[in-house]
Amino acid sequence: AQTVTQSQPEMSVQEAETVTLSCTYDTSESDYYLFWYKQPPSRQMILVIRQEAYKQQNATENRFSVNFQKAAKSFSLKISDSQLGDAAMYFCAYRSLLIQGAQKLVFGQGTRLTINP
Amino acid sequence: NAGVMQNPRHLVRRRGQEARLRCSPMKGHSHVYWYRQLPEEGLKFMVYLQKENIIDESGMPKERFSAEFPKEGPSILRIQQVVRGDSAAYFCASSPVPEPLSEQYFGPGTRLTVT
Q1: Would you call A107 and B93 a contact, using CB atoms and an 8 Å cutoff?
Q2: Tens of pLDDT along A54-104?
Q3: Cβ–Cβ contact A90 with B under 8 A
Q4: Which residues, 6 or more positions from B62, have their beta carbon under 8 angstroms from its beta carbon?
Q5: Do B100 and A102 touch (CB under 8 A)?
Q6: How does DSSP classify residue A59?
Q7: Interface check A10 vs B, CB under 8 A
Q8: Interface of B with A (CB under 8 A)
Q9: Do the chains contact at A110 and B42, CB–CB below 8 Å?
Q10: Most confident among A33-37, B1-5, B95-99 (mean pLDDT)
Q11: H or E segment and range at residue A86
Q12: B68-106 per-residue burial string, b: 16 or more CB within 10 A, e: under 16
């Protein structure tokens, strides 16, 4: 079974600075999808960015980018120019492409990000 | 287009009572997923349903938990004889099709408290 590990329970960053959240995963599959979700205090899950494993190019969405290292099974999220609204729990998630498990997301434990003004 | 709706947002039940959590997927979405989030943890998959079918219930506890997604109406997650360990946030997500990159859209969650 696939597992996702986020080794940083908490992170903090000064407003306007850059922060990187770590995520590693374990799988025997060669093709899959990876996601970062944001959960603000409202608890609503918001998709931040996604990466297809077959793509070598790292995904980017405005101030959010990933560093995808397939061989190392690492998928970190970089937030540039941090804003107060970025404060939230961030979850890394894995999704299989095998038919049996293609639908469910496997989440990490989360990293609580604090933005210091 | 309204998002995924869940109700109630907060539910308090005494031990031994039944809890019913409802999820209305986004319009046009026929695939529903339920996840549970224990305090200070990530979301854990419970069950995946299509209209009138349970596709994957590998994350559902064997006893007391059941889910349905009828032809008409919302999806229901039912927990019988609740215990304190059932206290958690329960999230529903929906997608239009089960294609690989089809995004799962999450509802706001139902926070269940068992006293």
Answers
A1: no
A2: 888 999 999 999 999 999 999 999 999 999 999 999 999 999 887 665 678
A3: no
A4: none
A5: yes
A6: P
A7: no
A8: 31, 33, 35, 40-45, 48, 55-56, 58-59, 89, 91, 93, 98, 100-101, 103-104, 106, 108-109, 111
A9: yes
A10: A33-37
A11: none
A12: bbeeeebbbbebeebeeebbbbbbbbbbeebeeeeebbb
B18-62 pLDDT, tens digit per residue, is 999 999 999 988 899 999 999 888 899 999 999 899 999 999 999
Contact map slice: A 21-80 vs B, CB within 8 A: 33, 42-47, 50, 52
Using the beta-carbon criterion (under 8 Å), do A104 and B31 form an inter-chain contact? no
Q: What is the CA angle B64-A94-B35, rounded to 5?
A: 25
Instruction: Report the Cα–Cα distance between both ends of chain B, in Å, rounded.
Output: 37
State residue B41's pLDDT score: 85
Number of Cβ within a 10 Å radius of residue A31: 12
Q: Any chain B CB within 8 A of the CB of A97?
A: yes
* DSSP bridge partners of A49: A36
| DSSP letters for chain B | ----EEE-SEEEE-TT--EEEEEEPPTT--EEEEEEE-TTS-EEEEEEEETTEEEE-TTS-SSSEEEE--SSS-EEEEE-S--GGG-EEEEEEEESS--TTPPPEE---EEEEE-
